[in-house]
Automatic annotation (TrEMBL):
Keywords carried by this UniProt record: Receptor, Signal
Pfam families reported for this sequence: TctC
Domain of life: Bacteria
PANTHER family recorded: BLR1237 PROTEIN, TRICARBOXYLATE-BINDING PROTEIN
Listed name of the protein: Tripartite tricarboxylate transporter family receptor
Source species: Pigmentiphaga humi
Keyword Membrane attached: no
Similarity section: Belongs to the UPF0065 (bug) family.
Organism ancestry: Bacteria, Pseudomonadati, Pseudomonadota, Betaproteobacteria, Burkholderiales
Record has Protein transport as a keyword: no
Amino acid sequence: MPLTPFIYRCCAVLAAGIVCATAQAQSFTRPLTIVVGFGPGGAGDLVTRRVAQALSAQVGQPVVVENKPGAGNAAGAMQVLQSRPDGYTMLLTGNGTAISSALFKSLPYNLTKDFRHVSSIAGFDLVLITNGNSSLSTVADVIAYAKANPGKMNIGTSRIGSTQHLAAELFKSMAGIDAVSIPYKTTGDMIAAVRSNDVQVAFEILSPILGQLDSNTIKAIGVTADKRFPGLPGVPTIAESGVPGFEASSWAGISVPAATPADVVERLSKAIQAAVAAPDVQAALQAMGYVAAGSSPQAMTARIEADMAKWKSVIERAKIPQQ
């Protein structure tokens, strides 16, 4: 029997109500916040601010970056965990947070149980550098020199437990060399040591030294990621230069409290992936020495878990004391 006009109208109103309710449930109605557990001006902070601009356009709301420095990202993590699990308050995480979980004796949060991981946003390639006038021009040269001079080669790194330091320890282990890791407080101190030959090589994040590579006072001979950096296509990866399987990238992503609904996590993930895939974002981050890269929640979760296991093994093998 055909529906009466009245029933048609009722069905139409009901359908419209369902559509409106669904749209409202999926939309953001106020500003979002990304909490960064480090001070302003660092690699993670700069990338987050650029991505936040693009994300704002995707969600139709301002995205504010709030710095909350604290050991092991603890201060920022706790602020996010104490917020409502609704997707409006997010935490910048990544390999540094994974390292902290292995490096610190105790943290007030559990990275795998207390958070849901939304999407990666960028990779921070590290490079192996030498003095611009050094005879060490390839990774093979470095390995050969270290093996000919056991215990005499110095490798500059950042603070103990940093990605740079662990990259050096992983390189020593996988290359089978005996060398001394020398930690420095700042990138400037490390570069000065390379230029004065106090260290023969050093591992550093690409972004703060990218401009100096053009001056020829230092030179990059290997990239620590599993792919060549697009801005330095002539610099091979360490993996393709005699240390198969070597990979020690730094990267950043976005996480939210574990109680955040799955549909909100999925919506945020798609918005972030769209934001970092924008050509202007890709170009801007590459010019800064970064690689814009989004991921699914599942892929980011798998990467966090893999990094936690990987760096825990490196820390234990290098006998780095827990902090």
